Amino acid sequence: MKLLFNEILNDELTIKEIQAAFEAEVITSKELVLYYLDRIAKYDQSGPKLNSILEINPDAIFIAEGLDHERKTRGVRGPLHGIPVLLKDNIETNDHMHTGAGTLALERHSGAKDAFLVEKLREAGAVILGKTNMTELANGMSTTMWAGYSSRGGQTLNPYGPGEFFVGGSSTGSAVAVAANLTVMAIGTETDASILSPATQNSVVGIKPTVGLISRSGIVPFTYTQDTPGPFARTVTDAAILLGALTGVDQADPATYKSEGLSFQDYTSFLDPEGLEGARIGVFNHASEDYYKESGEYDEDLFQRVIGTLRNKGAEVIDKIDIPSFHREWSWGVPIYEMKHALGNYLSRLPSHLPVHSDKELIHFNKSNEENTLKYGQNMLEYRAGLPHNTLANPEYLQAKLQDLYFSQEQGIDFALKKFNLDAILFPSYIGSTISAKAGYPSIAVPAGYMKNGRPFGVTFAGSAFSEGTLIKLGYSFEQAAKHRKPPVFK
Q1: Is 170 a catalytic residue?
Q2: pLDDT tens-digit profile of 354-370?
Q3: What does the alpha-carbon distance between residue 89 and residue 69 come to, in Å, rounded to a whole number?
Q4: What is the pTM of this model?
């Protein structure tokens, strides 16, 4: 049995396959946790040192043992029973782990309660395995900070080319841990591209949902308008299972109120291998003609192969659709002003024993520990500290907020969907992240092959509010037809 256990776990098992192995008593949740702890020791904390994980939950083995016992005595809670999951370092847990958002100043901060989504995961029977590294303060620290770097955790590496390939940010650790098979699934958060970028860079599936589909309460905030958590997995099926476990109206997060009647607790009903048949998909590829083509993140041949696969599966593909507002200069007013207000409020409510309770105290703390905290400086922190205190009444902010919504929704995603009668918009890599983030609309990133140098390439399907089911259907059908994902190989 142990030999079979080792043979099975050499593969990237899906949630369904793991549950079948549990039921057949080939493996237990405890053994699965031990397997991942072994891989974390070998590949994340030594070997290639991917550096994707900040902390391991010291209770993980006990939790897994308890869930194994519950399976035998009371039955199974659902598809996530006994399945390990990692959380980004800005998601609070009421246990022995810390929530630091990548900062040294908050590395000893313990949440007073579980984030709403963590409560949902525990109820579903998932094993919270640990916390993942992230771009410090969700890329709100410095304009020169490299994606995937934090003072608390150092630099996260891309498993397909450690130290060579761009790793994406800011939910970097979550994406890398899934890509390197250090966990079954993980949770990230996105303000703009923070799920989609690392998903495409690391050949995993990432879902950035409609803002309000998943509660943000208990998560270190960066904006009020654009923030959302979302799942990472190696398959669309696993991402859909995880997404359904996270939805629900939370009285502590008004953004979730509108999701009632529009969200699902089970998105697996959308997993149709023929889901592309008859679908109308608009291709936005203008960016391949300018800066993006020179960034190293675009591959024309791979993108055209994606389009060919869509057509072969029966989709009607409309080339080079028009999104009027795509190339407009988006104001930084909303994220800049909201981050000052949101992060400032969060810091002010922290326990008294912690060293910082305001942006100014955070700046001072970093200066006092410069050798360990200011590798890339803190010019974004310092800029926001100079803004007026009451930023949410600032006319520049108010105008930016109104314009963001108008140009991203009415003159953006919704305009294109209506004009061309589309089910979704296809973007190469994550170039559609900003307009979708401004609109608060969902996207799904899926692997789409590998460049000649081995660097992963991905695409995203984007839609209007609460169109996750449609996007999952399209992404799953493409995934099943293309079967692009390959695990990284460690020397």
Answers
A1: yes
A2: 999 999 999 999 999 99
A3: 29
A4: 0.97
